[in-house]
Amino acid sequence: MTGRLLVCLVAAGALAAMPAAAQAPVQLYPRAVPAAPAPGPEPARPVTPPEPLPPIAPPPASPPPASPPPASPPPASPPPAASAPAAPPRGIAVTPLPPVQSPPAQSPPFQSPPTPAPRDEVLAAVEGFYGALGRGDGQRANEFLVPEKRNQGAYEVAAMTRFYSAMSEPLRVLGLGRLDPEVVRVQYAYTHQSGRRCDGVADVTVRRADGRALIERIRALSGC
After folding, report:
1. Are 182 and 126 in contact (CB under 8 A)?
2. How many Cα atoms within 13 Å fall on the side-chain side of residue 26?
3. Of the candidates 136, 190, 131, which has an alpha carbon nearest to the alpha carbon of residue 159?
4. Could you give the maximum distance between any two Cα atoms of the chain, in Å?
């Protein structure tokens, strides 16, 4: 311990004997580093100007297309030469046949169209027929029919007389109307003794026969 104390005293004395300048605190300064030179502007590169384009020459004007020459008609072919008839062998006489003639066409016989009866005759035939039925005269009614229908079937004289005579209200014509030159529509009415009432309508066809207008057909439209 005494040795250590001696060392300390010697060290303290040495420090006391050092001049005051040596005991001042030491200041440290950074070492100056030379600054790097600032980058200068990059030198401009020489620019090569573009080569001028060659001038474009306009296309040469093409001449208008020439129209084709008109087509010439084909040359007419010569007609074929008629072959000469073969000569008959010698020693044989040939007699030509006469040409065959077709029979003339026969025209159908002329038929004149039927002449329609005049209007007054058509209406007169219908009015005369139904007027005779209204009087119960079957014989007179038959005279207004074509010959092939007289006294046949429903037009039998005795049956017509018997039926139309037994009426409480005789048949009377209410109206007539032409449908065409040969057809008349007639409207009539009657009441039978049995009490049966008929309001009838019929189409009467009239044609010319025996030189006068006669009834050919009666088509009842009302059933009586």
Report:
1. no
2. 2
3. 136
4. 200
CA dist 127 and 16 (Å) reads: 185
Its pTM stands at 0.48
- Let me know: does 223 contact 202? Beta carbons within 8 Å: no
Q: In whole angstroms, what is the distance from residue 176 CA to residue 95 CA? A: 79
What are the tokens at 143?
A: 């005279």
Q: What is the mean pLDDT of each run of 10 residues along the chain (224 residues)?
A: 54 50 49 53 56 58 57 57 52 52 53 51 95 96 96 94 96 94 96 95 94 95 88
Which pair of structure tokens corresponds to residue 98?
């006469």
Q: What is the rounded (10 degree) CA torsion for 9, 12, 18, 19?
A: -130
Phi, psi of 155 (to 5 degrees): -100, 20
Q: Which residue has the tokens 């229908």?
A: 149
Classify residue 145 by its DSSP letter. Answer: B
